[in-house]
Design brief:
- The protein is α/β, with parallel strands linked by helices and about 650 residues long.
- It contains 21 helices and 27 strands.
- It folds into three domains: about 260 residues, 2-Layer Sandwich (Aconitase, domain 3); about 150 residues, Aconitase, domain 3 (2-Layer Sandwich), CATH 3.30.499.10; about 170 residues, Aconitase, domain 4.
- Strand 23, helix 18 and strand 24 form a beta-alpha-beta unit.
- Helix 2 packs across helix 3, helix 2 packs across helix 5 and helix 20 crosses helix 21.
- Bound molecules: alpha-methylisocitric acid and iron/sulfur cluster.
- The site of iron/sulfur cluster has 11 residues, from loops.
Length: about 650
């Protein structure tokens, strides 16, 4: 049978199960990554598993999110993470080295291997032919401890690329076009696999920019073949020896397929406040812009930043625009410095920021009241920038620089000549801030600042739940809605009691108080509940506050797994019309849940104000065990095998 790239990699990594859509399988994980905002909890969980050293081939702990140090807490966490990496045999990427996904692509990505990361944009490495998936931190901790990763085999959705991007049209426009056609729900339960003759017209960093934002489609992952371009990229990174060719077989039949002609694309952008709110740039020209940020995990390749620098050789940044550059990695910064791009950016008055996520996650760079901020980031969920009622548009570096020069949204095709920039044949390699693992770690002590609190004790599943609907919300609720980020809340990621106070705080500031008083509560939601960030905190804080079940029309994959990992029941309404029958404040009772869950042939019945409503019982055997134990950690402690 002809096989896709993802099927080939999955089959090589199967520990349990078969490659068949909707079948739960166990996969061997070769590499893991964490970032600091999810990493602290992941390593607290890893410690709880009691394993002396990681069992993966390679694991990296990056620090890129919580970089502003307004008090001791963020640096406390950085030091904790560095000591953990030393103790357990991980690479440690120091704060200031850059964004995890960029660095991982440069230094560690490997065609044909599997990568699990506690960040939803982990699929960026799919640009290099790697099967890279985001998950909650606990799943990453389990993978580091040598356990396989459980996943339901998604459908494979093929995107056949033809043609070649025209000048001023960017790889970012490819993913915008897919988001325009398929929305933030379009990738749920799917692996997006790019193939066809157009693929060879995209370099690895461009493929990575597309794979990065596959997360915004809700896709399990995105993957490109490993071909001559991949080889060239790895050679330029000084890692030619790990290249191998992986292409789909000629007769591969995907579960679904679309065609996209790169030559037909034009510059696009996503309007506030969702990445799928896509429009043609030409239709929005003239909107005044006052902040423009270029960079992030998706768009700060050598070519992206050199293009910006080149455009500034003959043009000036508009006086009302703050043009900010967030380089993705020190390696990129050093390479553009070597090519005189950095001095051009400095000379032109661009604000060169430190390397990391920064404004993308509301760690600084918040826009002023009412202004339009144009960013090359992957996400623009409401308020994520740190400013209430923000107007954040997402776009390519090409659109960003054209608009920075004009001071308004501008179609870059109106610029003079297109600067042709190629990725270098040999990058200057910069490993100065990447600390390699130690061989002998027995006398290393973990340094635990006061910000690191122990993992909360969670009880097993009760047999009857009785409580109120504490919140009813609509479709596409993100984990940013459930537990916001930003410079005030992020430092609390290693302190569950403190961070739980902010649960749903942007929707209902009294939520955590109400939940604590109620002791047991429920949340009702619409479609694609829990999309966006992989932060497992969004599930754990709910459990900590007494939320025992979430009843929705459909879940986003990572949040659903995170809920199960912490013993919160993710219940899907059998008939989504029943969503209209449940309201905030309604009384919910679920009787004999333990029996109901265990009986896989029957649906789960809940009583809403005494009326019976049916939910699906679509849990796998393993998920049932986790739910009954009250989560994965409880399960491992009671039955380690
Ligand atoms: C994001 O882009 O939302 C984040 C911040 O990188 C998250 C992780 C987090 O919340 O820590 C993600 O994408 O998973
Ligand atoms: Fe960082 Fe933003 Fe990328 Fe998330 S999306 S990893 S916050 S740069």
């Amino acid at each position: 049978m002809d096989k896709s790239v993802s099927q080939k990699i999955i089959e090589e990594h199967l520990v349990k199960g078969r490659f068949e859509t909707d079948e739960e399988v166990a996969l061997k994980i070769d590499q893991t990554l964490t970032q600091d905002a999810t990493g602290t909890l992941a390593y607290i969980e890893f410690e709880a598993l009691g394993i002396p050293r990681i069992k993966t081939d390679l694991s990296v702990s990056y620090v890129d999110h919580n970089l502003l140090q307004n008090d001791s807490r963020n640096m406390d966490d950085h030091i904790f993470l560095q000591s953990v990496a030393k103790k357990f045999g991980l690479y440690f990427s120091k704060p200031g080295n850059g964004v995890s996904h960029h660095i991982h692509l440069e230094r560690f990505s490997e065609p044909g291997r599997t990568l699990l990361g506690s960040d939803s944009h982990t699929p960026t490495a799919g640009g290099c032919g790697m099967l890279a998936m985001g998950s909650g931190g606990l799943d990453v901790a389990m993978a580091m401890a040598g356990y396989p990763f459980y996943i339901t085999i998604p459908k494979t959705f093929g995107v056949r690329l033809t043609g070649k991007l025209r000048p001023w049209v960017s790889a970012k426009d490819v993913i915008f076009e897919i988001l325009r056609r398929h929305s933030v729900k379009g990738g749920i339960g799917r692996i997006i696999e790019y193939f066809g003759p157009g693929v060879e017209n995209l370099e690895v960093p461009e493929r990575a920019a597309i794979a990065n934002m596959g997360a915004e489609l809700g896709a399990t992952t995105t993957i490109f073949p490993s071909d001559e371009n991949t080889k060239r990229f790895l050679e330029a990174q000084g890692r030619a020896e790990i290249w191998k060719e992986i292409k789909p077989d000629n007769g591969t039949e995907y579960d679904g397929e679309i065609e996209l002609n790169l030559s037909d694309l034009e510059p696009l952008l996503a309007r506030p406040s969702s990445p799928d709110n896509v429009k043609k740039v030409s239709e929005l020209e003239g909107i005044k812009v006052e902040q423009i940020i270029i960079g992030s995990c998706g768009n700060s390749s050598y070519k992206d930043l050199m293009l910006v620098a080149k455009c500034l050789e003959k043009n000036k940044i508009h006086e009302n625009v703050s043009l900010e550059i967030n380089p993705g990695s020190r390696q990129i910064l050093e390479n553009i410095a070597h090519a005189n791009g950095l001095s051009q950016l400095i000379h032109s008055g661009a604000r060169i920021q430190q390397l990391g996520c920064l404004g993308c996650i509301g760690m600084g760079q918040s826009p002023a009241t009412g202004i339009v901020s144009l960013r090359t980031f992957p996400r623009n969920f409401p308020g994520r920038s740190g400013t209430k009622n923000d107007k954040v548009y997402l776009c390519s570096p090409e659109v960003a620089i054209a608009s920075a020069i004009k001071g308004e949204i501008t179609d870059p095709r109106k610029m003079d000549e297109f600067p042709k920039i190629r990725e270098p044949n040999k990058y200057i390699i910069n490993n100065e801030m990447m600390i390699p693992p130690l061989k002998n770690t027995s006398d290393i002590k973990i340094i635990r600042g006061p910000n690191i609190k122990p993992f909360p004790v969670l009880g097993s599943l009760l047999n009857e739940l009785d409580g109120k609907v504490l919140l009813k919300i609509g479709d596409n609720i993100t984990t940013d809605h459930i537990l916001p980020a930003g410079s005030k809340i992020l430092p609390l990621r290693s302190n569950i009691p403190a961070i739980s106070e902010f649960t749903f705080s942007n929707i209902d500031s009294t939520f955590s108080k109400k939940a604590k008083e109620a002791k047991i509560g429920f949340i009702v939601g619409g479609e694609n509940y829990g999309q966006g960030s992989s932060r497992e905190h969004a599930a754990l804080v709910c459990r900590y506050l007494g939320i025992r079940a979430k009843i929705v029309k459909s879940f986003a994959r990572i949040h659903r797994s995170n809920l199960i990992n912490f013993g919160v029941m993710p219940l899907v309404l059998k008939d989504s019309k029943n969503y209209d029958k449940i309201n905030s404040g309604d009384h919910i009772r679920i009787k004999e849940i333990r029996d109901q869950i265990s009986n896989e042939d029957k649906s789960i019945v809940i009583e809403v104000n005494n009326e019976k409503i049916t939910c699906l019982n679509e849990f796998s055997k393993r998920e049932r065990k986790l739910l009954l134990s009250g989560g994965l950690i409880n399960f491992i402690k009671t039955s380690p095998n």
